[in-house]
Write a structure and sequence with these properties.
Strand content: 5-15%
Helix content: 25-40%
Number of strands: 8
Radius of gyration: 27 Å
Oligomer: single chain
Amino acid sequence: MITPRFSCTQDHNFVIIIMRLVHVKISDVQFVVDGKRITFTAKPYFLRLTFDQEVIEDERAKATFDVDKEEMKVLVPKKNPGEIFTDLDCLTKLLSTEIERKKLIEVLPGDESEDEEEEDYEARQNIANTEGDTNEFYGFNDEFSNFFAPIQDSHDIAECKVDSVPLDKRVEMMLAAEAEDFINGSDHYLADYMEGDHIKELLTQRPTYYTDGMDPPSFEYLKGLGASYNTNQATGQNITCDDDADEDMDSQSEEETESSSSAEPEPAAAVPQFINPGDIGRTEFTTGGALSGYVTTANWDAKEHVVGEDERENRNVVPVPENSTMSGHELTTWEKEELLRLPKKNHLVVKEQEVMCTLIDLLAAYCYDHITTEGEGNTESVWTYTKLSATLSYVVKYPSPKHAVVSFYRRSVTYPIHRSIVLSKRCLFDVAHILSSGDKMKVVRILLRMKWHVDRDDFKHPLSKLYLAPYAVWLQTVSPDFLRKWGSALTSAIMNTTKADIGLPLEDIESFGDMTG
């Protein structure tokens, strides 16, 4: 457990404790007042304070949480109003166990007591070090720094200690782990390749995020990497797999982006290198480091939550409407309530390409979970999101859509229960369809569903604040043409990605399966 940073003051009636709590679930907060002692717990924090004078717990006790400052203010009533509490600025003494407090008292010569040999069973407390080892900014729009520092040792949020491992090293660790894990589980991939009836069955699912009248593409259609696919097929018609169709898609993309007021997606060559697709299977690569910060503005509505009245507690009784359609229909009551709970914050996005490539990564993980759970989601959905999305696993950044595509391919054929390059491709094309529909509220609805699941995970819930909540706020401000532009960019990236780009021995394993099958 972590001891939070805190301070103690007093007035005529109360001892006032202010604690700095980062990423805490307010619904987990508990206080125990016992004589001269007050104990506070809320994962991952623990604070036990022992005063020289007595406090009591009655109807006057109150605790509020300032969302903006991430501070909790606790008013603990004095047993004797007006009594002056001593040594409130002696933090070491307040944190000391009973045995430690006795040792702080000077023992007169010849007055030694047996208490000196008394064993100390109380937990020792040390103030948490919330300063990270790097000055890196990350998360949505690069708006966070040292986000993991207070809790990384206690919470299994990311795959590494993000605040002490720089971006290029995290990418190196990620690629090495993916390569090793894929080889160790290659028999799983081979089995799904040779006995793929369950994959074909999954691909017949029609997700709720499809446009009305659209049918899912067939297994055979998706099987070859580089096959053309029309992401705007509202009538369910496919485009023939040929070069002309690919050129038509590119020309369509140019026409859309010329009419859009948003900036063009930056060409991949102009972006600092994240992963060289040709070298992606090797672990000795280096990165150019896309670490520059974004220009942002933030205007939070100041608000306080009274402990015990946190909304998340009540939301547990509202089932997430996984099977309700997300295309062109009125928001449900649940969705409206979730939107009202989002922070009211303005985001000025400068590095559009990195922000949108991260969104592609998040949506691909959602599509995989949605398809494999038949739209219902389950207790493993958070694991699926965080394992398939390198953004959520290693807090990485993508300079181009192709890098996001390659990363999702690698993780989706390495970790989940269904490992099929065809299924992965279907998920990516579904993301392209979602973006190409131009329906920003469809994207927001997906993020609200992801957020609902992640918020309820004991370890991963801080990722909502880092990515899901700000994306759900910002996307409400973008235009349909902006999303369509990125749908076209993603389609082009999928079409131009081959199995060789993925950097894993997929073709060798498939060739072996073909020979033995």
